[in-house]
Amino acid sequence: MSIIFRYLIRQVMVSMVAVSGILLLVFMSGRFIKYLAAAAEGKIAPGVLFEIMAYRFPGFLELILPLGLFIGILLAYGRMYLESEMTVLSACGLSDRQLLSKTLMGSLVVMLVVGSMSLVVSPWGMKQVEKIFAEQAKATEFDLLAPGRFQELSSGGRVTYTEALSDDKRELKGVFIAEYGSNGEGVSVIAAEAGSQLIDEETGSRFLILENGARFDGVPGQLDYQVTGFEAYGLKIRSGSRGDVELDEGVTTGQLMRSDDPRDRALLHWRFSLPLIVPIVTLLAVRLSRVNPRQGRFFHLLPAMLVYVAYLGLLIAARDAMSEGKVPEWLGMLWVHAIFLALGLWLHFGPAWLYKRKVQREGLANA
How far apart are CA 4 and CA 10, in angstroms? Predict the structure, then answer.
């Protein structure tokens, strides 16, 4: 039986890793494109993109691993049913209960990984992302500037362009700056051949010293522009305010346990629900993976995926209802788990119980 156990777990894990890898690629690519667009708009520095994605990786993993395990069992066992491997294993003495128990034992590893990600690693990663966003919020325009691109920076009201920028971001070439006038009317356009950053040692203020350029002040559509040429021109570099960049996912599990806020309690229940999903979807997948060879390999995937979507959708709805105070905390999300646990148990043991009752009734009728 140990050989059969290792064979079953290997088939499931190979399928789970393949499916989870594809899903991770899809979901992380979508999130990376969002951050890339923010970097293109000058909201965050391009250099922190991969750091943010690395810290967010556990958060993606905790959501994808249960789904990957669910689909992995469906694919692995479905193939074994189609190729009559399950028939051979059954002839060797492997019962349905043994198949279920061995699969559940293998899923315990996945449950532990998801639990560690959900309760510890993922909140820590989101806390690091929160710190990165806070640092980006207080970054100066110089820190977010990228050569060859017009950028409307976080300070607002100013568009900056430079043809070239030194590695230390202290020297610029081909500078163009456009901003609204101090009274909100008209625009000021500055063009200069070069620029450099200057830091006032006494106040710590930063200035951009432009060289060999001109400033144009006026109202668009009118001809009375004021043109001022200069050899050197100082422009103060504005810094963003740090503000309170707080992410709910970055709150530690211990803080959630001590909180009385319904939103925090709902998030706490959600974190405990993620590892609890694993054995329940395993219970469902083992039964739903049974397929008739005449039906095709992927015939069972659609109803199985509908069950998983319904499970996850009800959990999200229960979390939202709990955060709004519509569901008492003692009930929380347990009722959703109870429904699908009952469904899984019925799929495994319900038909046999019904058949036993039918035989008993027929026996009594013929007695």
Answer: 10
In sequence order, what are the residues at sequence separation of 6 or more whose Cβ sits closer than 8 angstroms to the Cβ of residue 270? Answer: 315, 319, 333
Sheet holding 206-218, edge to edge: 151-152, 158-165, 171-180, 187-199, 206-218, 226-236
Euclidean distance between CA atoms 175 and 40, whole angstroms:
18
- The rounded distance, in Å, linking the Cα atoms of 170 and 144 is 12
What are 132's two structure tokens?
Answer: 């990165």
pLDDT, tens digit, for every residue of 184-226?
Answer: 678 888 888 888 877 777 766 777 888 888 888 888 777 778 8
Q: Contact at 8 Å (CB) between 332 and 269? A: yes
| Two tokens, residue 327 | 């569901």
CB 339 within 8 A of CB 313: no
Amino acid 367 reads A
CA separation for the pair 25, 152 (Å, rounded): 31
Q: 213 in helix, strand or coil?
A: strand
Count of Cβ atoms closer than 10 Å to residue 244 Cβ = 8
| pTM for this entry | 0.76
Decide if 98 contacts 309 (C-beta within 8 A). Answer: no
**Mean pLDDT calculated for residue range 318-324:** 90
Task: Supply φ then ψ for residue 150, to 5 degrees.
Answer: -75, 130
In this structure, what are the phi and psi dihedrals at residue 193, rounded to the nearest 5 degrees? -75, -35
Q: Distance between CA 348 and CA 312 in Å, rounded?
A: 21
Q: Is 117 helix (H, G, I), strand (E, B) or coil?
A: helix
| Torsion angle in degrees (nearest 10) through CA of 334, 340, 342, 344 | -140
SS3 116: helix
